Automatic annotation (TrEMBL):
PANTHER family reported for this sequence: AMINOALKYLPHOSPHONATE N-ACETYLTRANSFERASE-RELATED, AMINOALKYLPHOSPHONATE N-ACETYLTRANSFERASE-RELATED-RELATED
CDD domains: NAT_SF
Cross-referenced Gene3D superfamilies: 3.40.630.30
Top enzyme class: transferase
Enzyme Commission code(s) on record: 2.3.1.-
GO molecular function, one term: acyltransferase activity
Organism classification: Bacteria, Bacillati, Actinomycetota, Actinomycetes, Micromonosporales
The keyword Phosphoprotein belongs to this UniProt entry's keyword annotation: no
Protein name per the record: GNAT family N-acetyltransferase
Keyword terms: Acyltransferase, Transferase
Domain N-acetyltransferase, chain residue ranges per copy: 7-154
Length: 158
């Protein structure tokens, strides 16, 4: 059975999530950096810039999800944005990603959010299938724009 638990910097699952977050970064081509990843995640959670939840099975974290809440000023409400979702390869295909998505959507609904958004690469077919099967739909009429602040760093654009 999978249990979803909130992750805080003092939570016993934090260290496992931080290690899995570094694996997630490496999965997307970043050089492993466990110490820097742990520090970054700790800062994000401590300053409440993001929230995180972990999927735990038999005492081990099999996946995580992060989200942030953004004011929706024109609608006088808030929207939630899923920023990261990752399931360790050995824990895939058993429903962990869906369980984590459901957790965030239920939490957003309970908090009165107006919507939940996410983004993924157009070539990430498994993720796109998961998200559309869950009910997420493409947004039309909008463009995603970035302004790189440090063009010497390739990650400034993504």
């Amino acid at each position: 059975m999978t249990t979803v638990v909130p992750v805080t910097v003092t939570d016993p699952t934090f260290e496992q999530v931080a290690a899995l977050f570094d694996d997630y970064r490496a999965h997307y081509g970043r050089a492993p950096s466990p110490t820097a990843t742990r520090a970054w995640l700790q800062d994000q959670l401590a300053d409440r810039r993001i929230s995180a939840a972990a999927a735990v099975r038999a005492g081990r974290v099999g996946g995580f999800i992060t989200a942030l809440v953004t004011p929706a000023s024109l609608m006088l409400g808030s929207v939630w944005s899923i920023r990261d979702l990752y399931v360790a390869p050995e824990h895939r295909r058993i429903g962990i990603a869906s369980t984590l998505l459901e957790h965030v959507v239920d939490s957003a609904r309970a908090a009165g959010a107006l919507r939940v958004s996410l983004q993924t690469e157009t070539v990430n077919t498994p993720a796109l299938r998961l998200y559309t099967d869950f009910g997420f739909r493409p947004v039309t009429g909008l463009e995603l724009l970035n302004l790189p602040l440090d063009p010497r760093r390739p990650e400034a654009t993504g």
